[in-house]
């Protein structure tokens, strides 16, 4: 791994004997996404970026909380439906997170600010940094499985024998996604109604201790309502869902394209193997024919030599043991 500068940050690995060298520009070309924009990677403090202040985005995420501050508890149960769906997309696709989803990390909030404010962010570099961080932790699973498949195909790593996994219905973002998250549309408004089997898990996740970097200040004295009034505007939700469906269509198209290219490569390799076998067979037959012709020519020369010696045209040549082993009785072809 090389990480002198962000633009030079790269990951090297060997998979099935093939060495891969991956940096942001290569990954961006594989995924057909930009590699420009700002970049920051923090998981213990708020990112320090010009024009960004935590209170601004927190006021957007928690509009009914008058006491927002950088050290407040960041919970998802108080988010509006569009922000909740955006967070769901981030923790499952952009910045995968293990465990529960009842709380937001500061890095997740920062990414939400970038998307809401239309600030260009270097996601290829974020993907690489996230994979390195996951690899360095114990009992961790390397994220971005579907993206890694595209990377392996790019480097022509054979996937024979690997078990493929089809997209589940849960991987498609639509209204069913919101229903599974406990959101129901009533009179044109999305209202959260957690399922009975979700209540114990949500309560447990909400009682979990905050990470050390979120315990710098005591919680605000004013009680926080359990849930804000749902937003009646669906414009942001429709825009987010449209964006997610577009991303999903792009990934599906890329996977289909890579599968077709990989199948074509396998076909061509199979043809090359057949051609090599034919060439090897022809070369072996040619070699045998040349060897046989040389033996016949050698016998003919020996006979001419003996005849010339008998006619006194040349002196008698003493035959060596190797010459005597040649049989003159072998018929010429």
From TrEMBL:
A Pfam family that the UniProt record links to this protein: Transposase_32
Region Disordered, residue ranges: 200-233, 308-333
Domain Putative plant transposon protein per the UniProt entry, residue ranges: 11-158
Compositional bias annotation for Low complexity: 224-233
Record bears the keyword Metal-binding: no
Keywords: Membrane, Transmembrane, Transmembrane helix
Keyword Transmembrane helix: yes
Stored InterPro entries: Transposase_32_dom
Positions of transmembrane segments: 110-128, 140-157
UniProt-recorded name of the protein: Putative plant transposon protein domain-containing protein
Naturally occurring in which organism (per UniProt): Cephalotus follicularis (Albany pitcher plant)
């Amino acid at each position: 791994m090389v990480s002198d500068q962000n633009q030079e940050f790269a990951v090297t690995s060997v998979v099935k004997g093939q060495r891969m060298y991956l940096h942001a520009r290569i990954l961006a070309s594989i995924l057909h996404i930009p590699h420009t924009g700002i970049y920051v990677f923090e998981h213990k403090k708020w990112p320090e970026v010009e024009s960004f202040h935590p209170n601004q985005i927190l006021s957007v995420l928690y509009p009914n909380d008058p006491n927002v501050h950088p050290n407040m508890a960041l919970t998802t149960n108080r988010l509006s439906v569009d922000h909740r769906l955006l967070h769901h997309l981030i923790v499952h696709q952009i910045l995968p997170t293990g465990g529960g989803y009842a709380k937001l990390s500061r890095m997740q909030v920062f990414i939400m600010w970038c998307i809401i404010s239309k600030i260009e962010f270097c996601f290829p570099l974020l993907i690489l940094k996230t994979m390195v961080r996951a690899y360095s932790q114990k009992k961790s699973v390397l994220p971005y499985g579907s993206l890694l498949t595209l990377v392996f195909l790019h480097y022509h790593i054979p996937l024979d024998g690997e078990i493929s996994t089809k997209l589940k219905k849960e991987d498609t973002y639509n209204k069913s996604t919101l229903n599974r998250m406990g959101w129901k549309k009533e009179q044109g408004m999305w209202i959260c109604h957690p399922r009975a089997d979700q209540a114990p898990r949500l309560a447990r996740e909400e009682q979990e201790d905050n990470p050390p970097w979120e315990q710098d200040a005591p919680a605000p004295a004013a009680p926080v309502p359990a849930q804000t009034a749902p937003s009646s505007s669906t414009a942001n939700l429709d825009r987010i869902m449209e964006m997610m469906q577009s991303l999903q269509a792009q990934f599906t198209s890329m996977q289909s394209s890579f599968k077709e290219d990989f199948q074509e490569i396998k076909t061509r390799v199979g043809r090359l193997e057949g051609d090599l076998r034919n060439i090897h067979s022809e070369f072996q037959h040619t070699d045998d024919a040349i060897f046989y012709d040389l033996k016949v020519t050698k016998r003919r020369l020996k006979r001419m030599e003996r005849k010339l010696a008998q006619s006194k045209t040349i002196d008698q040549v003493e035959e060596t043991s190797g010459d005597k082993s040649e049989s003159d009785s072998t018929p010429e072809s």
